[in-house]
């Protein structure tokens, strides 16, 4: 599916994709990384542990695979697809066993056609993802002033101004 996503960008069939690996309440096993327990109960509710690390390491490796494919593909303007793309990679939980929504791990990659500032780590303790999403929408010229449950301010430092 990641290869098809890159191909769709390359052919200019779309400029937006959403890819969700799985719904986290699934009991999907991951035997290719040595984890036979179901993901929701067997992995996320038994933190910390080797199965949790193995599955999440594999998921992040898929992000790296996508980024490498985008970086290796030229877009219509000669830049790479990664230069012209915004990739938002996140978990829906900050900590799975307690179902905490605080301190969500979020990675933003790509250049967004020059609109995204690269190479920084932004500390946002106790926050959800709404302020990140506002900043990304504004980077794409979506005139949004709020998002989600009370988020009204874009996270500073994401977008080039």
Structure, explained:
The structure is a single chain. The protein is mainly alpha-helical and about 160 residues long. Helix content is about 30%, strand content about 5%. The chain has four helices and two strands, in the order αααββα. Strands 1-2 form a two-stranded antiparallel sheet. The protein is globular.
Question: pLDDT below 50 for ≥5 consecutive residues: which ranges?
Answer: none
Residues in helix, %: 25-40%
- Radius of gyration, CA atoms, in whole angstroms: 17 Å
- The helix-and-strand class reads mainly alpha
* Head-to-tail CA distance between termini: 34 Å
Number of strands: 2
Outline of the structure:
By secondary structure, the protein is mainly alpha-helical. The protein is 29% helix and 5% strand. The chain contains four helices and two strands; from the N terminus they run αααββα.
């Amino acid at each position: 599916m990641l290869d098809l996503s890159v191909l769709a960008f390359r052919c200019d069939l779309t400029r937006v994709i959403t890819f969700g690996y799985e719904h986290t309440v699934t009991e999907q096993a991951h035997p290719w990384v040595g984890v036979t327990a179901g993901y929701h109960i067997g992995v996320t509710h038994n933190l910390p542990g080797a199965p949790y690390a193995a599955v999440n390491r594999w998921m992040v490796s898929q992000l790296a695979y996508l980024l490498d494919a985008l970086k290796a593909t030229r877009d219509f303007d000669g830049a790479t697809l990664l230069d012209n793309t915004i990739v938002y990679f996140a978990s829906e939980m900050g900590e799975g066993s307690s179902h905490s929504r605080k301190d969500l791990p979020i990675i933003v990659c790509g250049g967004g056609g020059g609109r995204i500032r690269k190479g920084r780590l932004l500390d946002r303790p106790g926050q959800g993802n709404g302020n990140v999403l506002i900043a990304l929408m504004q980077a794409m010229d979506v005139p949004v002033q709020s998002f989600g449950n009370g988020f009204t301010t874009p996270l500073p430092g994401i977008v080039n101004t």
